[in-house]
User: Fold these one by one.
Assistant:
Number 1:
Amino acid sequence: MVGMSKDYNPHDEIMKTVDRAASLLGLEERDYIQLKYPERELKVSVPVRMDDGSIKVFEGYRVQHSGVRGPYKGGIRYHQSVDMDEVKALAAAMTFKCAVVDIPYGGGKGGITVDASKLSKGELERLTRKYTTLLYPIVGPHIDIPAPDVNTNHEVMAWFMDTYSVLNGQLTLGVVTGKPIPLGGSLGRREATGRGVLIIAREIAKKLGLKLPGSTVAVQGAGSVGGTAALLLHREGCKVVAIGDVSGTVYNENGLDVEEIVSFLRAERGRLLKDYDAPGLERISNEELLQLEVDILVPAALEKAIHEQNAPQIKAKIVLEGANGPTTSGADAILEEKGVTVVPDILTNAGGVVVSYFEWLQNLQSVKWDEDEINEKLENIMIKAFHDVWNMAEKAGASLRLGAYMLALDRLVTASKLRGLTF
Ligand code: GLU
């Protein structure tokens, strides 16, 4: 990865922020030391019969970071860069994210090291079912509840739920969230992370005196988070000038037709921006996207997109972290110095897990909520979390990232003390 030192460790990056938040809160290390280590780490070997008859063994992971505030919660990622350090970092981020939005979950994350685009649908299904079997002893609706993440979707969740249910001897809808709507999925879940990004965009724009309609936006990532965020910001009246995916970035200084782009990409599995064309469209690199002179930049792809080498070139006024961990701590310091407002991932992208929580509640109670009710509840939670974070940051004279970590850490340490878990 460009500009990365070899020993970059995403889990250590998060813990640096946790330490700084703890010192601003006046905590001693003994108050929160348990949060610096995952409670449980599982590594599994997943043998899969490939379509050509050969057997391939993939590496899979599930990390349960903290169960202090509730069952472990967090997605499953299929990507070639997945390793234990990444999954550990993402699991810890879930613990803090769930605490920021104050939903009764701890944090977990899973993943398989695989390039999902190279697998047929049948191979993906067999991979998912075998991985579920291997995770079976440590997941469950009151233990650990997975969900979609990068390159996994409602279909993968349906296979996970079915496999778990067969092993469990009963249909167990509440074991995963992000399921298809006819199979215990929740209305609004698929758009929830992107909708959360929109809600946070509105709040931060109000605080900074920016009029959202007419403001310019660049979005890195065109998947379920980036694609939906781009679409909703476009519908809000923003001028989305650039959208990028693994195949490159499409750019139009007068604004892209986001409706057309997103429906093009969603028409078939595996569609990429390189195959989209429209009059007036320019192609730029993903690095150029990050450096555009826009009001709002939404990194909504993978970790460490913004690092020490490219941070000095960022010209956006606001960075809304749709992805998990898109900004390294070195880059964070540079952006702060430049006066760029960074709204952190554990707040900005929390809409997904909030609606996962609603899905789980509906599953446990065998009820169905309507979409307006879900979106309204999501909005209330996100707005409250935004203001809690803002006030915490303001009181401490710290960045929004530190404010978010302080808020979460305070809630986690309080719960931990009440349970008598600290020494
Ligand atoms: N993968 C999403 C995230 O990183 C959603 C997790 C969930 O819904 O449990 O927040």
Note: The longest helix spans residues 371-396.
Number 2:
Amino acid sequence: MSLSMLDNRPIGIFDSGMGGISVLGEAIRQMPNEKFIYYGDSANAPYGEKTTAQIIDLSDRVCEKLIAYDVKAIVIACNTATSAAAEYLREKFAQIPILGMEPALKPAVQEHPHGTIVVMATEVTLREKKFAALMQRTAAQAKVIKLPCPSLVRMVERSVVTSPEAELEITNCFQGIDTDSVNAVVLGCTHFVFLRKAIRTLFGGSLQIYDGNAGTINNLKMTLEQKGMLTHSENEGGVTLLNSKNDAYNLQMQQLLDLYEQVVI
Ligand code: DGL
């Protein structure tokens, strides 16, 4: 790659709050030379209980803030904001690539074509047409159980991801579901990725758990590579954490980021 093809601007990543920190963790792992600016909109979390119009408006404001930092791409590290606002954002900020997320139903169905698959996501993600289209494209023969878990979003917003409180909340969310008959769980909300290990511990080793983080970051990498927008491979990467709520949240985001490898991988 010629030097003129390199792009040293930062990459913007945002979520309604803490969940997207799990996507940031994966991004740092896969792209250690890049600079990232993460914006958590914790003052307005959860997005998953808002109207589509509200989510578009909030996502628009966050993207304006990231654009002011001269980001070269934006990752919507939120399934909810992707479902509600990705189209709008891609049209409005057409000058840079905008990558979104969707529940990793496709790989779950590929590996369990006739299985029972639980998709944990927000009400918004599960009701939007994007998810209906995904179901139609991928889930022909599988039994898909949609499981909205708003209490888990609020819990992860408080950085509770490993305690007995977390285990109790997860157990409550699965009440009414015969977990022995479940073959796979799809974490269709980036907040829930922080609960990956806790869910596995609760439901035993045979349960397969899927999330969209690695796929999204692969996509980001490929897109920037194709456009000649990756940074120099010898550059030192870095992270700037921003939050709409208050400075205490910045510390909380850093602590979650430090926990990433321990609770997710
Ligand atoms: N983390 C978000 C997602 O991936 C949503 C959480 C929320 O704000 O409700 O859907």
Note: The longest strand covers residues 35-40.
Number 3:
Amino acid sequence: MKLLLLGCILTASFSLQAIAATETPIRLVIHGGAGTITKNTITPEQEKAYQDKLNEALKAGYNVLNKGGSSLDAVQASINVMEDSPLFNAGKGAVFTHDGKNEMDASIMDGSNLKAGAVAGVTNIKNPINASYAVMTKSPHVMMVSKGAEQFAAEQGIEIVDPSYFRTDFHWEQLQKAKEKEKVVLDHDGKTAALFVDPMLYDYKYGTVGAVALDKQGNLAAGTSTGGMTNKRYGRVGDSPIIGAGNYADNNTVAVSATGSGEMFIRTATAHNIAAQVKYNKATLSDASRNALDDVKAIGGSGGVIVLDKSGNYAMEFNSEGMYRGTIGDDGIPHVSIYKE
Ligand code: ASP
């Protein structure tokens, strides 16, 4: 009997050790956009509001990871907090298109199997990141756009809201200012088509949100959600829902989420650029990120990236003046930064 008991205790402690040995450190890294963010461009009250919301987003993702939940669930939990806040250009705080609408893009990627899902140009999905997860898990496709994506999301039980939910006075004013500046640029340049006006001329703040996470099972995930760029038109879609540009995750390399001038991030395939450097050149996460941002800068773009690998190493790099960002690990203590250190 005693021997049997001893056997049971030994087996139990062996299994516990086996579980402990297979658990990896948890890590979550988030961003809430990059751009001309300096002590002079935001008030102390705004600074506090951003810090509080980033902390809340980090804790939401941490709670999932700490309980043994998946990196995919953590990414969504964290992004949902930022999507539901008017502070960020995603979900509730999405910027306006030229036509006065809010059209959102989002994507998510599972590093364990390279599955991915994305939606673009959606106008009534409260949390576009959840719709992108549904595309990944409930359909054979990677990307759905506009009305089709909205119909699919509704069929999957994703929360649908009236498009007026996304209206914020601040972003409405921002659109009016952008249109005025556009007019000045057009008059000055004598151009006839607004199509040729570079959005960079009037909007240097990117409020896209993103998260990359590593769970206890050692799986990486990345998610990105955005309202795109103020005054965008003609169904413009940026890098955020483009796998390999604004978002990427592969357990063998890294998980990446980007924010910045989307066109340049698409043209230089930023997120995959970083993963490829880590894979083929064994580059450090910081070096790979800086190289990729240099490529973006070389063609006139700016912004930032968050990057995480399966050992829990991470980087938060940007070539703009600031980036709302933060990270949290096993100790559950959130670290948030806004400006250049
Ligand atoms: N990258 C986003 C886009 O071009 C903008 C942002 O990061 O805020 O749509």
Note: The first helix runs from residue 2 to 22.
